[in-house]
């Protein structure tokens, strides 16, 4: 819950705007400001105070406990110009809350957390537990001091700055192993461990936890690296297991017995097979769901069984569409994924557009025009090595772009995230008016990947079905006859005055928008930087804009 505290009419108006934008998530606190702020502090995860920074500092100072439990506090000024992350930038979520407030109110977010200010990921923002000299190592990263990074495996983390490498007086360990704390050493705990649990009906929670703790300690691994507890679905409601997971803050994952029966384990049991339909619960549940090694074979107490497995990291591949070219049409999700990546792969001209959005230390793998398949294979290979990879392209990654060749070679051994982008067709349509108001067909006229006979058959089908037709890759210096041929096919099925829109460099420098007709279209006005939109027989030009009605009766 986000608490909203305001004392002036302008503040209450802004608070009401936030409450409207976040229904069910934000609550206004009324009454004397000190009491309202104190109540919100006790009840909310974040607070937006429509007060001066100085006044808010004095009011919250007696309430401060520690950054692990304090809510994030954002101050907004009377004129809605600034949203200042005041308390709990990372741990309390104030930095992110300031960005959200700014997006609704049109303010500028003010974030003073050092790592955020210079684009370096804070060690406490990675979603993993971190121990040890966190402040000292973070300071070393910020100051450009050499920091030694030592990891047991490659994990899909965001890029660390260039001063993070093989040498340094400060150290960042990425490990699930129990290690003796050292000065100037921070330990980042990856979610590498899965604890498989079986239990008899009525097994006490204390017995389950004691067995789990002993298994982890004997293996020399940290409970902070436990990804989840796992068991067979028949035990999904077993109170001792459920409560053990809740007390430790671990997710409880259950598997069907039939799935666990297919997992190869060193210690199968005919008795367990007869009772629950799988020869193993603890070992199979610990190993299920990935490539894993068994660290602790099953061990038993009176009523419980436990096993521990270490899972191999899964790399991450984000397929990111950058939109048609304008920076304000790059989606916030795309920006977040670029910051999330440690490796970015793409065409050199697209990478040049977004280099300022990459974190310091990001490894950039650029290549020239052509050979999209090689770029896709490179990105997938990097993800298979465990990295967080962003494969970028213009428009939407799934529309005549990089998602298809990448997913054609990607297996189930990596995680894949699709990030939608604004396509060239959508950008062109917005500039032309509303030409895509009804059914439309998208056809590439490039015969580099598709035989012309197949392209021509698709154009004929679109013509006969009276689709609005969008042509990608319409004309190049060596392919100059395909566009006239395609438009001629469409012309046989619709009037010569049917509108045609040609948009070159949509939203980019050199943008040009031309509205013409089927009979008047000049192929020389079109090149590979253009998108051609040919209307259906119902498309019209209204007040200089191309419009296709939504299937309702057209009103003249």
From TrEMBL:
EC number: 2.1.1.131
Pathway per the UniProt entry: Cofactor biosynthesis; adenosylcobalamin biosynthesis
Entry keywords, A to Z: Cobalamin biosynthesis, Methyltransferase, S-adenosyl-L-methionine, Transferase
Chain ranges of the Tetrapyrrole methylase domain: 316-521
Record's keyword annotation contains Repressor: no
GO BP, sorted A to Z: methylation
Ranges of residues in domain CobE/GbiG C-terminal: 193-309
Domain of life: Bacteria
GO molecular function, one term: precorrin-3B C17-methyltransferase activity
Official protein name in the record: Precorrin-3B C(17)-methyltransferase
Protein species of origin: Motilibacter deserti
Taxonomic path: Bacteria, Bacillati, Actinomycetota, Actinomycetes, Motilibacterales
Gene: cobJ
């Amino acid at each position: 819950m986000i608490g909203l505290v305001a004392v002036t009419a302008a503040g209450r108006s802004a608070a009401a705007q936030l409450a409207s934008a976040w229904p069910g998530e934000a609550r206004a606190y009324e009454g004397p400001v000190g009491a309202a702020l104190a109540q919100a502090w006790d009840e909310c995860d974040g607070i937006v105070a429509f007060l001066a920074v100085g006044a808010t500092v004095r009011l919250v100072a007696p309430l401060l406990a520690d950054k692990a439990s304090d809510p994030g506090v954002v101050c907004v000024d009377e004129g809605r110009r600034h949203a200042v992350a005041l308390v709990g930038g990372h741990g309390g979520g104030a930095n992110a809350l300031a960005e959200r407030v700014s997006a609704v109110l049109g303010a500028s977010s003010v974030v003073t957390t050092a790592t955020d200010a210079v684009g370096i990921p804070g060690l406490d923002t990675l979603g993993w537990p971190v121990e040890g000299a966190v402040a000292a190592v973070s300071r070393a990263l910020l100051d450009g001091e050499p920091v030694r990074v030592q990891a047991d495996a490659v994990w899909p983390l965001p890029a660390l700055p260039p001063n993070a490498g093989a040498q340094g007086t400060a150290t960042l360990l990425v490990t699930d192993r129990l290690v003796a704390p050292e000065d100037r050493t921070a330990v980042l705990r990856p979610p590498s461990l899965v604890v498989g649990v079986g239990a008899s009906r009525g097994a006490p929670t204390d017995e389950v936890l004691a067995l789990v703790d002993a298994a982890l300690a004997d293996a020399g691994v940290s409970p902070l690296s436990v990804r989840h507890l796992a068991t067979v679905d028949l035990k999904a409601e077993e109170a001792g297991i459920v409560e053990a997971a809740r007390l430790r803050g671990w997710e409880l994952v259950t598997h069907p017995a039939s799935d666990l029966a297919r997992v190869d384990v060193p210690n199968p049991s005919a008795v367990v097979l007869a009772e629950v339909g799988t020869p193993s619960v603890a070992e199979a549940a610990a190993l299920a769901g990935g490539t894993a090694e068994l660290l602790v074979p099953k061990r038993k107490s009176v009523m419980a069984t436990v096993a521990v497995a270490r899972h191999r990291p899964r790399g991450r591949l984000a397929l990111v569409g950058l939109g048609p070219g304008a920076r304000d049409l790059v989606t916030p999700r795309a920006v977040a994924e670029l910051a999330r990546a440690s490796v970015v792969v793409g065409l050199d001209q697209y990478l040049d557009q977004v280099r300022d959005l990459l974190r310091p230390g990001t490894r950039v793998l650029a290549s020239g025009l052509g050979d999209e398949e090689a770029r896709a294979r490179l990105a997938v290979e990097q993800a298979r090595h465990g990295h967080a990879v962003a494969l970028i392209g213009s428009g939407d990654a799934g529309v005549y772009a990089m998602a298809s060749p990448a997913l054609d070679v990607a297996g189930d051994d990596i995680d894949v995230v699709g990030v939608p982008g604004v396509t060239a067709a959508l950008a062109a349509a917005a500039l032309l008016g509303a030409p895509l108001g009804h059914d439309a067909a998208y056809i590439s006229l490039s015969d580099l990947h598709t035989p012309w006979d197949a392209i021509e058959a698709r154009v004929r089908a679109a013509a006969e079905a009276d689709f609005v037709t969008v042509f990608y890759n319409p004309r190049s210096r060596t392919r100059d006859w395909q566009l006239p041929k395609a438009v001629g096919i469409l012309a046989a099925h619709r009037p010569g005055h049917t509108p045609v829109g040609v948009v070159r460099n949509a939203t980019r420098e050199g943008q040009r928008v031309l509205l013409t007709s089927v009979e008047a279209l000049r192929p020389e006005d079109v090149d590979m930087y253009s998108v051609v939109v040919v209307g259906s027989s119902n498309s019209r030009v209204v007040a200089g804009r191309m419009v296709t009605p939504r299937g309702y009766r057209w009103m003249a």
